Amino acid sequence: MLVMDRHKYEQELLRVRQQVQRALDEKSVVETALRDADRRKDEFVATIAHELRNPLAPIQAAARLFGLQNFSDPRLAWSSRVLGRQARQLARLVDDLLDISRVAEGKLEIKIEHVNLTLVLRQASDVSRGMLQKAGHRLIVDLPDHALFVDADPGRLIQIVENLLTNAAKYTPPGGKISLSLIRDELTATIAVRDSGIGIAEADLPSIFGIFTQLPSGASRSQGGLGIGLSLVRALTERHGGEVGVTSEGANKGSEFTVRLPLSPVQTANPDTAADGPAKRSRPHRVLIVDDNEDAALSLATLLDIDGHEARTVPNGTKALETISDLWPDVVVIDISLPDMSGYDLARLSRKTVGMADMLLIALTGRSQADDRRAALDAGFQHFLTKPVNYEALLGLLL
Ligand code: ADP
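That is the input. Now the predicted structure with adenosine-5'-diphosphate docked in place:
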């Protein structure tokens, strides 16, 4: 009797074990499928961001050119303002998209410098003040009257603050009060952006920094957006060793977003970076632009011509080599993916042209991974710019 029971018991145990194993196998199949879908989504976001970047470069350059004209027809003046504003907005969205795909791939780059956070926040508030005023808001900036040093990427810090201020403006009805403040604890600096807007329900607070999170309450106020701004703020802050926070007393009671960053152990200015002299204007250069995207090349050349440089464009590497010995450019801007040869090969061949060893070579590309930078430097480029080219950044290289 006892033997029978034992046999039954073992069979039952085997059956349960097999069931558990089947459930575990099914779970792992589902997990693999989910991971695959997630990876494909990341790849899709990265592809979209890159594809959108290319047409944006000439659109931004054309908008800039358009904005330099004096129109007597008010409709044209209005069109020019709309074009400039919308191109900037589109560029910001695409940049955010690109950054978020780099976060997903673990390839987000930051360039750490010893910076005065008080000064960086002053710059960020100056950048956003016009946008806030246009939306009918009052901006109150409360910064310490002394320097607070952090070891961080100043461009990324401005991106964090701009993102929070833009959200504050978007999710606050016109006539709101928005404040930007900075306070110091013992070892940290806390940036706070507070608004008097639509607020956030308590239940939504924990998920608000998640990617693609958009609350229904924000929908009617939103002037576009992809639901990635806050997740980027969090990723950038964490890359700096900091943490984000949010509080709100509920609907229509405003919100406060905080970014806590570790203070630098050195609270004095770095002598190399302390003096930011006035921007120098460059002497005229002969610039050759090698890019098969005709619109991008021509718009860049036109902007350079307006700024007093002599710019010529060619669509491929062969034409570039012919033109170099004809024009003797002192700057060559090369798109990395050319139809007849790679930009890297063209850089190597250009440098070998007699008398051309000293020219400034600038790589231009839609891709911006560390490997691409390294390959560009190995090929003899001195600088590496990503598309759409930031015209001011390019001018900064032509001193
Ligand atoms: P987006 O603004 O593009 O939708 P974000 O990631 O910047 O994406 O913000 C996610 C969501 O968080 C928004 O859609 C909005 O619902 C909510 N949100 C962000 N900032 C605020 C704010 N200052 N006040 C109220 N809600 C906000």
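Residues 273-281 have pLDDT under 50 and may be disordered.
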